[in-house]
């Protein structure tokens, strides 16, 4: 059985450890509260202000929000000035939450990464669920915030995010919603992970590097950029092989329409491989493809020479 605890005492900090099947709720007007315990509660955290309310949550421990889902439940009013504001500020270096979602309502829903002198990497996704965050993830003033996606689920970002650190996709899928953007953060995609932009026409931003991890222990395992209409004209890519590559091809991109003939910048290209923007001629795949060894090319050449000689003899015999 999950217990529900609702707090409305502004200015307080919960420094105790909260464990078990507990769900926290924060909904009082003008509430500012801190979460500083070494907590593992599993019921989740819901932040739900009402009319013209602002709720500020300062998370001062890496596990201050427990192991459950975090949900920002905003409030809309016909007069936007009377809609709610939610600010969740992760102030430590490596906070972890089970998942992140919001309903998109309210004047503003912000997740703020960092504190004075502290750069923050927020890890989300351990619950393995599919969630959509419709607010904005941004840096604390003067600091650098980063995001790490873990777990098998899909985390969708539907807001105009502005954090400037790295985005690391260690598992599952990190997706952009139809109005989502992520232009100020480099993206690293693990070999069993996906960055997805299928709900919009996506142009790779200038100055944003996508790093694809390549795993030779699997059959062509590589990080994947999955899009519908994809523009690569300004795209920058890099590669992170986990060992000596031994597969014929590593697929790094899927699309239904492609604008641009090649990436603007390619770094750390593995020796013996080239990029093919229309792999297998299917018109929907970008792959890193092995170049045949010189010896192999020589054998192919000898085979073609032998075939030509044989054909010539057969013609002469006829």
Search tags:
about 325 residues, mainly beta, 8-stranded mixed beta sheet, elongated, disordered C terminus
Question: Whole-number radius of gyration?
Answer: 25 Å
Count of the domains: 2
**For the residues shown, what is the average pLDDT?**
88
Strand content: 35-45%
Helices, by number, come to: 1
The end-to-end distance, rounded to whole angstroms, is 89 Å
Instruction: Please outline the major beta sheet.
Output: 8 strands, mixed
Secondary structure category? mainly beta
**Counted beta strands:** 32
The coarse overall form would be elongated
Residue share in helix: under 10%
**Low-pLDDT runs:** 295-318
Describe this structure in words.
This protein is mainly β. It is built from one helix and 32 strands. The protein has one helix spanning 294-317, and strands spanning 3-7, 13-14, 22-26, 31-35, 45-47, 54-59, 69-72, 85-90, 99-102, 108-113, 120-124, 131-133, 136-139, 145-149, 154-157, 160-161, 166-169, 172-176, 181-182, 186-189, 193-196, 202-203, 209-215, 221-222, 224-226, 229-231, 236-241, 249-254, 257-259, 265-267, 273-276, 285-290. Strands 11, 14, 17, 20, 23, 24, 27 and 30 form an eight-stranded mixed sheet that branches. An eight-stranded mixed sheet has the order 12-15-18-21-25-28-32-31, with no helix packed on it. A six-stranded parallel sheet has the order 2-4-6-8-10-13, with no helix packed on it. The protein is elongated.
